[in-house]
Amino acid sequence: MPFDFATSIDRRQYPSQKWQRYAEDVLPLWVADMDFVSPPAVTEALQARVAHGVFGYGRLPDSLRTTLCRWSHHHYGWDIDPEWQLWLPGVVPALHLASLALTEPGDGVLTVTPIYPPFLKVAERTGRLPQTAQLAEPASSGEPWRLDRDALEAAITPRTRLLLWCHPHNPTGRVWQHEELALLAELAERHDLLIVSDELHCDLILDGQTHRPLAASFPELARRVITLWAPSKTFNLAGLTSACAIIPDAALRRRFQQAMSGLMPDLNVLGLLAAETAYAQGESWRQALLEVLRINRQALDDHVARWPGVSWCAPESTYLAWLDMRQTGLGESSQGALLERARVALSDGVDFGWPGFVRLNFGTPTAQLEDALQRLDGLLA
């Protein structure tokens, strides 16, 4: 393999949310932040830019817009226009910005749980009405999570204006199928909903499926969908804070852009360079990463098979595993028990709207993952 995904990197030498939240004897597998060195082409481009030595206000390069258009066409068969792109410092700010731009105080903002925790804070933080529906959980271990039409329809009220959607899904790793997205599209049209489709993990599909952006699958939705993309998860660039809102409808784009004014900081010149380089030159690195993630997912599956009371559906995408711990006897705070007794830090399902579950990040060197899994064996096997 031409890239090194095996060497463990000391991440405590610089401030790190992932590695400095817990004591030094804890192995952190919680936040969605990989432990791999980013693509060499990206680090080389950044080194050259840093050598320039001037870091004044930048501007969005046309070449970045063009590069993302090519990426979208090549990987997803979606021909986007450069003018559809609004670049900003991250997907989470974009979620909040969409709520402010597209809804009024008291409007309903709906999301489907379990879900990446910031989704659950958007309505409250922007003075809107929080609304949730639940996915249909698997009937048995190995079966997929599914969209529950009845639950979603029941959650929609006359006040509902905005749906925050995650595709592929974090934390379950589901790659939504066309028929499920068609159901979503029909509900959006019938109830006149706007949709923010967080497609952050679309470049990390593990099983040979093809991601199809929601707005591309249903062109009739283009006037009501904002698609969020970023290189942060795919290429491990989260700390460089750059993401893109793709908005085909001019009126919707204008509303979003007006809300950005004064609320969003100027673009990160290094983040924009990293994004362009990753999309232009990072494909071979991405393919190598996917192979490592498949190996790690299999290692996790082997361990879960010998953990009584633990069930899961192996993720079809992402480097995140959603584990049902409700039958382990560890209680509702299984995350706390695993932390205290196994010294492995996972994300608590409570934060995703589903107590009794944990999320495990397997985007780490295989030997490091095995160390954590063996610690968990000592408690769960």
TrEMBL record:
GO terms for molecular function: cysteine-S-conjugate beta-lyase activity; pyridoxal phosphate binding. Gene3D superfamilies: Aspartate Aminotransferase, domain 1, Type I PLP-dependent aspartate aminotransferase-like (Major domain). Its EC number is 4.4.1.13. It comes from the Bacteria. The keyword Flavoprotein does not apply. InterPro entries: Aminotransferase_I/II_large, C-S_lyase_PatB-like, Class-II_PLP-Dep_Aminotrans, PyrdxlP-dep_Trfase, PyrdxlP-dep_Trfase_major, PyrdxlP-dep_Trfase_small. Keywords: Lyase, Pyridoxal phosphate. SUPFAM superfamilies: PLP-dependent transferases (SSF53383). CDD domains: AAT_like. Belongs to the class-II pyridoxal-phosphate-dependent aminotransferase family. MalY/PatB cystathionine beta-lyase subfamily. This is cysteine-S-conjugate beta-lyase. It comes from Modicisalibacter ilicicola DSM 19980.
